[in-house]
Amino acid sequence: MSERATSVSPRADTESTPQDDTTAERTPVTTGAESVVRALENAGVEYAFGVQGGAIMPVYDALYDADIEHITMAHEQGASHAADAYGIVAGEPGVCLATSGPGATNLVTGIADADMDSDPMIALTGQVPTGMVGNDAFQETDTTGVTKPITKANTFASDPDTVGDEVGEAFALANTGRPGPTVVDLPKDVTLSDTSSTREPAPPKTPSTYEVRESADPDIVHKAARRIEASTRPTMLLGGGVIKGDATAEARAFAIEHEIPVVTTMPGLGAFPEDHELAMEMGGMHGTGYANMAITHCDTLIAVGTRFDDRLTGGIETFAPDAEVIHIDIDPAEISKNVHAEYPLVGDAATVLEQLTTEVRTAPKATKWRAQCQQWKSDYSMAYKTPDDEPLKPEFVVEALDEATSDRAIVTTGVGQHQMWACQYWTYTEPRTWISSHGLGTMGYGLPAAIGARLAADDDQEIVCFEGDGSFLMTIQELAVAVRENLDITVVVLNNEYIGMVRQWQDAFFEGRHSASEYNWCPEFDTLAEAFGAKGFRIDDYDEVAETVEAALEYDGPSVIDAHIDPHANVYPMVPSGGDNGQFALTEDQL
Amino acid sequence: MTGGLEGPPPEERPTPAGKRNELGIRIDPAVEAARPTRRTVISALVEHEPGVLSDVSGLFSRRQFNIESLTVGPTENDDQARITLVVEESDPGIEQIKKQLRKLIPVIAVRELEPDAMRRELALVKVNATRPDRVAAVADMFGGKTVDASPDTATVEITGARQKIDAAIEAFSQFGIREISRTGTTALARGTDDTATVEAQHTEQPTQHTVPADDD
Ligand SMILES: Cc1ncc(C[n+]2csc(CCOP(=O)(O)OP(=O)(O)O)c2C)c(N)n1
Ligand SMILES: [Mg+2]
Predict the structure, then answer these.
(1) ipTM field
(2) Does residue B92 lie in a domain region?
(3) Which distant-in-sequence residues (6+ apart) come within 8 Å of B21 by Cβ?
(4) A467 an active-site residue?
(5) Cα A421 to ligand 1 centroid, rounded to whole Å
(6) To probe the interface with B, which of A7, A169, A178, A317 has the most B CB atoms within 10 Å?
(7) Active-site residue flag, A138
């Protein structure tokens, strides 16, 4: 029972251990800053996102000669979201840098975002020289203090000889086990000072106290398998952990082999092909009616890599109330945190799914259940109307982009109604093609995320960013970066001239009192895009959609489509917070 | 407002039979009782490095765990420190505390101690010195000793389990207590039982129920 798993190094370690021959030719490490940068190079880092400044200057100076391409962002928040999205697409930690004080605090939103969504990311922050720490020096902020609750781990570097090892460790921690953001705070004297020898930093490795369990307790796997075989209403719930754990193939194979209907969480979009007949698509607050019916009525829920967020579960009392829960997760602290797991399976998602695959001998007898699920798919179809006398529907715009792009196209979003339409009306079929701010719900995430995604993605993957008119304005300045770097991305503003999601809640729960949710003036996003040097487009009517979308995708560089949609459109289905998933509303009067 | 989808409204949908309680545990709605909390001692062996204490205390405030005392000090190994926590939580809450503690990178081992573990606390009690001999007598009764005396005050040191210290303080109150300082509980497991064993990562055993009749 008290076995200790061994500490492990992430892929980066095995892929790029200090190169035997190249290291010899490299200039020796002589300062703390050079050690920091060498540690990143040794970890295989190709891109870093950041903004210069006093306390981080020594690191930037070392970057000058390095094999790492640095993208100067307009704002450090943009740097952290770009690094976050880069990490999601690449499956390797994204790297962001900032100076001390305001540089570091500007990163905070992106760090918190990565923490909530368990994204691999490493942030390197400058700090005032050690001797001045605690004296309220110019641009001093207690960065490790501020970021402690929103990081997987953080450290304050104190020695030029070991700072490179610490960066390697932070890199390894960010992507081992359950991923997450790490921070290394770098006082300027530590980075400026000479090292006592020219030793290369140690390869990225997690500390010995860090343990990850690979495979689950065989005894519980055995019992869970019996439960699955005996189940008559089984449902799989695939979370973001399936994608992060590269367990998509195993999860799909298991579901298809045993013909088990599959619901995904929002971060789990892409874990299962939504055009498959077993796909019930996304569950939760704005999930499909059929996904929520399947969750509510299943007798066995096989949940993989999910933390049962409240936007998924609704009120816990009514969440999958008939189901025994088999919970596969790499983080033991997620087991029975929100929903009690009768069968706790701690381990790597792919490994545990393989264990289950071996153990489950007969498929559940669930013909009736599958028919019921198909019935729900038709009963609660997501079909929407496009009346001629009403303005352009957002769903139509989302679908038009999906149709015009490849299956591997990547979607990023801001936060609001537009984000939900992007979840609902795009058909996700591949992992790592959906990039959004799930747990933190950070407006302005979309554009910087598109920048990070673009640099990590293959050239043939289109990058489409859905933004809201409010959300886009929070990070619109990053267009300057997209133009400067000539990044091929297509931003689609679903412009309702409203803080739409807030307006929807006000209509439903605050008697339609639109306090601070109406924009009575909005910039023209197409001409604003042109001012940045990007290509601007505008859509007002259905008949402009197809050709504008085509032209924007065709354009080689950043383009912005300002799509003026029905300002009154609302997102359905909807489960109000804390509500019963099975009682989702299809119209406002059902709320 | 526009939008809205078609389909059977909520009142026409089937409803499930089951229910969960607020801890996400499936219950028989008819027989769910309140979940009692209990007081227990959790011992954590940690790397002796700056920031661990704030990691641990930050965890308790962020996750709203009920903590009664926290003590920290060096151990037999210079590189390690032991943190002893007295917490008051329900069983699932105690499980969650252990798992969250274990997740902190500098934490080496976490364990909930048996009820018979040795638990000790030190208290310094400063009272008015109007009757010094009586003060000494009460101190004696609790195995304590006077560590400081001045014309106006006497300070007594007492060690023991929490209840004993509570009782001593109660007894000293007759002299007029000026100040008290208590350390909070520190603890070790008894005999060869090791305080710092690594607990299994999941203590829950599968809880099986009968599967509903095959409706296929
Ligand atoms: C940084 C931040 N501030 C505030 C909010 C609260 N919020 C959630 S959605 C939303 C409205 C977003 O408006 P818009 O970007 O136009 O999107 P829409 O809902 O209209 O599609 C707001 C203000 C948030 N999620 N993030
Ligand atoms: Mg809007």
Answers:
(1) 0.82
(2) yes
(3) A317, B27, B32, B35
(4) no
(5) 14
(6) A317
(7) yes
Q: Which residue of A has its CA nearest to B98?
A: A333
Q: Each residue of A174-226: pLDDT tens digit?
A: 999 999 999 999 999 999 999 999 889 999 999 999 999 999 999 999 999 99
**A12 close contact with B: CB closer than 8 A:** no
- Which residue type occupies A463? I
Please tell me the number of Cα atoms within 13 Å of A207 on its side-chain side: 18
Domain residue limits at B130: 118-187
- Looking at the partner chain, which of A233, A340, A566 has a beta carbon nearest the beta carbon of B24? A340
Nearest C-alpha neighbor of A117 from the set A174, A46, A39: A174
Please give the backbone phi and psi of residue A170, each rounded to the nearest 5 degrees, phi first.
-65, -40
pLDDT at A519: 87
The pLDDT tens digits of the residues spanning A345-359 come to 999 999 999 999 999
Look at strands B80-89 and B67-74 and give their pairing: antiparallel
B212 — pLDDT class (breaks 50, 70, 90): very low
Active site residue A365: no
A585 vs B17: CA distance, rounded Å: 20
Q: In the CATH scheme, what is the homologous superfamily, with its name and number, of domain A218-379? A: TPP-binding domain (3.40.50.1220)
- The verdict on A222 touching B (C-beta cutoff 8 Å) is no
For residue A86, the SS3 value is helix
Q: What residue's CA is closest to ligand 1, atom 5?
A: A443
pTM of the model: 0.92
